[in-house]
Write a structure and sequence with these properties.
The protein is mainly beta. It is 10% helix and 37% strand. The longest helix has 17 residues.
């Protein structure tokens, strides 16, 4: 029995060491989201709108990698006309604060590129036409005016910033 107590003390010491850098340690039990968000396929790269009403994510639920937008108040998927393509994959979405713009990675041109989709105009604009290297992990400024992403265009992974307004 004393061996169990000794192991327990070690585990407590390890746990307090692991959370010692936190100002407050909280332990939550994550729950699988319900209401139609999840499917039988991997749901990845979640991104909230600023008000928390919309959630963008990537999934292969339709047989290819696509981006989905879910309205958490209405518990339904939101249609994204002209965003997902049959001949390519769309991945790694990032939402602007109001949810109007979605920055994402697409293989539409045969290699990963960064696009930004405007929900109002129902069209995407290519942001990386002149880059030769790989790109990943786009993020969009709250107002949708700039997109930042990683690129190895110059031989190492760097952060790139594109002003979507063209300035």
């Amino acid at each position: 029995m004393s061996r169990w107590i000794e192991h327990k003390k070690i585990l407590v010491a390890i746990a307090s060491f692991l959370v010692s850098g936190c100002s407050r340690a909280l332990f939550y039990q994550p729950q699988i989201a319900t209401g139609g968000i999840n499917s039988n396929f991997a749901e990845e790269y979640p991104s909230y709108s600023g008000d928390g009403q919309l959630l963008a994510f990537a999934s292969e639920r339709d047989g290819r990698r696509n981006i989905y937008l879910y309205d958490l108040q209405e518990n339904r998927l939101v249609n994204l006309p002209n965003l997902n393509r049959r001949d390519s994959s769309q991945d790694q979405p990032a939402l602007s604060t109001d949810g109007q713009y979605i920055a994402y990675v697409s293989t539409e041109r045969g290699k990963p590129d960064i696009f930004v989709y405007d929900r109002q105009r129902q069209r995407s604009d290519l942001l990386t036409a002149n880059l030769k290297g790989a790109v990943k992990h786009p993020t969009i400024r709250g107002d949708g005016q700039q997109v930042t992403f990683q690129s190895n265009d110059r031989g190492q992974w760097n952060l790139m910033i594109v002003d979507v307004t063209g300035n």
